[in-house]
Structure formats: C-alpha cells, structure tokens
Amino acid sequence: MYLRAFAILFFIHLSYCGYSQDKHKSIIELIELQKQDSLLAKMFYSTLTPYMASEKDPVKREKLQNQANLALPIIERLNKTMVETDLPAIYDKYYSADEIEQILAFYKSPVGKKVLQNSQVIVNELMNILTVKYLPVVHEEMSKINSGQYPPNTYINRRQ
Q: What is the pTM assigned to this prediction?
C-alpha cells in the first residue's frame, strides 16, 4: 500500500518536473526573443548615460565613465543571475505554460516580430526625449530645491 502511494507520488513529481522544465525553457526562449537577456545592463546604462551626459565637467564625466566600466563585470554577473533565475520566476508566477506558448507564438508572428524590432527603437527615442527635453528641467528644479528657492513642500505641485 505504502509502496504504491509512494510510486504514484513519485510519478506525479516526475511529470511535474518535466512540465516545469518545458515551461522554464519556453520562458527562457521568450526572454531571449524579447531581448531581455541584457535587461540589467540596458537599465544601468539608460539611467547612467543621461546623467553622465549632463555632467559639464569633463574630468567628472570621465570619472563616471571609468566607474561605469569598472561596474560592467558586476552588472553582467548580476544580469546573468536575474535572467536565469529571477525573471523566469516572475514569468512563472504570472503566466501559465499555455499562456507562455501563446506569447511566444505572437512574437514569432509577423506583427510580433515587428513589435520586437521596433520596441528598442521606440525606447531609444523616448530616452533621447527624456535626456534632451525633461532631464534638464529636473536638474533645474532640483537645483532650485537644493538652493532653497522653494519653500518646503511647495515644489511638489509646481509642475502639475
């Protein structure tokens, strides 16, 4: 009796592991299709690049660039862990295996390929707009706040 129950539980466990591995493989494929496998590095540079570009002092800007270069191996190591462990766990939490397959099918379709092709271009254009149009406003406002030009708590609603 116990042997039979153990055997049934063992086979259920094996089938679940096989299912989980297939789902995990599909999630990894999805991450690669979406080019999220370099996500952390992209996020790091997308925040650092405008900050470095706004630095007017070339010595400070070069120091920031050197620090970014030194951080790159750390970023790559963390990115590998994030892509192989954390990101699949997030997808696994919110999508069933069937939904992952449907998302993959979409990204493999002509429209899905176009979405993948244009999404990085759109993000790059948006980052340029952010850098040129909005980041200087943020810097200006922060300078005013730091210099005490705004009474406390009045700057919060100023731009609304």
A: 0.58
